[in-house]
Amino acid sequence: MRFFILLFLSIFFLGCQTSGNRSHDDGGGPGKLKKLPDETQLIQYSETIIILDDDLVDKLYYVDHRLQRFPSGQVRIQVNMLNRDISPQVRIEWKIIFYDGQNYKIEETEWYTTHFPQNEIRTIKGESIRPDVKNFTVVLRTPPAEKKKKW
């Protein structure tokens, strides 16, 4: 029983570490998301969250994120965001891109869809397969079906 308690405590303390080398917005804390300035920018992004559509910039707010590394080396990324739009629900697609120590893309998830009810914080969560992940970027976009509705 002591073994399980010690194992749980060690995982808890290792899992509570956040990625301190990446800042978001000016203060590194909660705030408005940024739009990717130029689509020709290199894949080695310098931001934790990249938003690809203008219409999502004013709808979602970044709350915080957590990087948890497992004993096997894989990482779990959790990003909390809040829907501050007056519409009752915001729908987004997202994926996570993982980088190695030299900022080369080594892995990425598929696109997933998440619904954000108004004034509710939702968590986007993904895990790497490779153990040599050092950094990550979460990419957000409006689902293609939602874009077609506007036209």
Description:
With 151 residues, the chain is α+β, with helices and mostly antiparallel strands. It has one domain: Immunoglobulin-like (Sandwich), CATH 2.60.40.3230. Helices cover 17% and strands 39% of the residues. The chain has 3 helices and 9 strands; from the N terminus they run H-E-E-H-E-E-E-E-E-E-E-H. It has helices at residues 2-15, 54-57, 144-150; strands spanning 31-32, 49-51, 60-69, 75-83, 89-99, 105-108, 112-117, 121-127, 135-141. Strands 2, 5, 6, 7 and 9 form a 5-stranded mixed beta sheet that branches. Residues 16-28 have low confidence and may be disordered.
Task: Spell out the key features of this protein.
17% helix, Immunoglobulin-like, single chain, alpha+beta, four-stranded antiparallel β-sheet
Offer a concise description of the structure.
The protein has helices spanning 2-15, 54-57, 144-150, and strands at 31-32, 49-51, 60-69, 75-83, 89-99, 105-108, 112-117, 121-127, 135-141. It has 151 residues and is of the alpha+beta class. It has one domain (2-150): Sandwich (Immunoglobulin-like).
Task: Give the domain tally.
Answer: 1
Q: Main beta sheet, described? A: 5 strands, mixed
Tell me the CATH topology.
Immunoglobulin-like
Second rung of CATH, namely the architecture: Sandwich
Instruction: Tally the helices.
Output: 3
Note the gap between the termini: 61 Å
Rg, nearest Å = 17 Å
Which bin fits the share of residues in helices? Answer: 10-25%
Judged by helices, strands and strand pairing, the structural class is alpha+beta
Summarize model confidence as the mean pLDDT: 76
Q: Count of DSSP E strands?
A: 9
Helix and strand sequence: HEEHEEEEEEEH
Shape type = globular
In what range is the share of β-strand residues?
35-45%
